[in-house]
Amino acid sequence: MRELSDSRRLWWRVTGMFAWVTLAALVVFHGANAIFGAGYDRWSHMARAGAMFLLVVPAVVLATRLLDRMPLSGIGLSPLRQGVLQLLRGMACWLIPAAAGVAVCLASGWAQIALNGSVSEMLVTAAGLLLLVFVFEAFPEELVFRGYVLRNLAARLGQWPALWSQAVLFTLWGLVNGGENSLSRSVLFFAFAVVAGLLRTMTGSVWTSIGFHLAFQTAAQLFGSVGGLVTVSNSAVLTVFAFGMLPFATALTLCTRLRHKRALHQDPRLPAESVSRQVRGLPVKGINYDVGTAYHPRHLSRPTWNSDEARDDIRVIGEELHCNAVTVFGSRLDRLADAAHHAARRGLHVWLQPRLPENGPTQTLEFLRQVSVLSEEIRRSYPVPVTLTVGCELSIFMRGIVPGRTFGRRTRMLTFTWPFLLQLYNRKLNRFLGEAAAVAREHFRGEVSYAAGSWEGVDWRPFDLVGVNLYRDSSNQGRYCADLRLLQRHGKPVVITEFGCCAYDGADTKGASGDDIVDWRATPPRIKGSRTRNEQVQADYLGDLIETYATEGVRGAFVFEFSEPSYPHAPDRRHDLDLASYGIVKAGPGDRWERKAAFHRVAGLYQSL
């Protein structure tokens, strides 16, 4: 029922946007004719452009943010300072083959071009048309059809059906608003929409299709009746061959090459080393800080709490580790508040994450509501970014999705029923996450995300960020980079909410299961078998993944984790529980700790990025 409801809402959003942009075009066209007359006039052109921009662009922004609940990057629109290169590439994709086509037409005598004014007048007119086309046609139309409509259709239909569907809608839109007055114009509209859609899909940016549209439409108007400074004989040949066939064919060829390149980069059969790396940076450099989580009844992972010592830990995280963000997670609201205030005072990007293992949906939502209120309080009180993560791996941490009274039983049930019941579990999880996101946004006005397990198929539409706990181990080492790139398909910034390993030989091949070497039934608990302490294994693992994230364009990553007081270090390696700890400091008596090799490796990399 929920999938059916989501599908209906999606079609209503697409239909509503199409109806609005169609109505806007009709109002602008007939309104301008009533005011300025039917002929072309530069003032009329400017008025139409301004009106179209004001009617369409805010509508897309509001629909994206309020109805789809995603940032504009979700529809492929990054800020202009980031998208200007894609814009120029899109323009060049049309201009270069079009210029070659014009040269061929002139050299062969297929067409002649005569200037009706000076070169300076031509340049001024071209600059004016460039601005008007951007405001009137290229930006609003691409934002609607290759941005909002294509993204929503792709979420339900898949990439290729969505591509053809948006082209049909664009052609229908041109027919309704009078942009098409012949069969050849309708074919041109459809072909253009397909090429523009391919450019947007293959590059991941709507700025590319905007640039292609901008160059094409500006040239068409400059060499047509709008510019008024150029006379073209046999203009049909110039339009069809130089402005249409040659640039469209070139763009299709480039898209084919881009598709092949993307397939190489996303083929999970290829090792990570087969793709060349180029460091892009890591905007969010973070670490997880546990204030005490009730993984077992009546037992917190951090048994005691000292506000002064927590403040010192946060200072070390900011000053020595060179983190600019920290995820504060746990099961106690007062501790979450204390640590979050300390982090905000240090100027860190605060990520708050409630964890209430072994509880059901009702208790989990109530705790989330309390943490949402706290998150908004922090956001309003300090000039730092605040992000709320609504939960972590809830399919196994929370009762009610995977059967089982305890975390251990749910984990075994998930393994036993894999993959036969995974779709059922994901449906139940996404139903709950939709409620969780609504509770969070009711009280909190910042970015909202979720820390997903790698096995969870999350519907990311209610969230601003894609957050995944992505540990590398022997099972996914060969495809880890491909899995990482696959997260980008959601069209939202990607954050690795957890990654890490323990500090013993072979821990890097176990990833998230590296802590299963403790026999908790023994008194006192002891390490199973014979394990050799090796802090360099943990340091190399974290260092390699941080470098990977910096080359793969993710927004940020959070090391798991700063310390684990429940896994104290001991000289006797049979009782050295720190071997099973993911902390980059080893816990000692009380709340004292010592830096491990991983601490220094993370600090050096974070400082350099």
Show the helix and strand layout.
Blueprint: H1 2-36, H2 42-67, H3 80-108, E1 112-115, H4 119-157, H5 159-176, H6 183-203, H7 206-222, E2 230-233, H8 235-266, E3 284-290, H9 307-319, E4 325-330, H10 333-345, E5 349-354, H11 361-381, E6 386-392, H12 394-397, H13 407-417, H14 422-443, E7 447-453, E8 466-469, H15 480-486, E9 494-499, E10 518-519, E11 526-527, H16 535-552, E12 556-559, E13 585-587, E14 593-595, H17 597-608
Parallel strand pairs: 3-4, 3-12, 4-5, 5-6, 6-7, 7-8, 8-9, 9-12
Antiparallel strand pairs: 1-2, 10-11, 13-14
What descriptors fit this protein?
609 residues; alpha/beta
What does this structure look like?
With 609 residues, the chain is of the alpha/beta class. The chain has 17 helices and 14 strands. A hairpin with a 5-residue loop joins β13 and β14. The longest helix has 39 residues. The chain is elongated and about 95 Å long. The N terminus is likely disordered.
- Helix/strand-derived category reads alpha/beta
End-to-end separation = 46 Å
**Biggest beta sheet summary:** 8 strands, parallel, barrel
Strand segment tally: 14
Radius of gyration from CA coordinates:
28 Å
Based on Cα principal axes, name the global outline: elongated
Share of β-strand residues: 5-15%
Q: Helix segment count?
A: 17
The strands making up the biggest β-sheet line up spatially as 3-4-5-6-7-8-9-12
Helicity range of the residues? 55-70%
Would you summarize the structure shown here?
The protein has 609 residues and is of the alpha/beta class. The chain contains 17 helices and 14 strands. The strands form 4 sheets. The chain has an 8-stranded parallel β-barrel with strand order 3-4-5-6-7-8-9-12, surrounded by 5 helices.
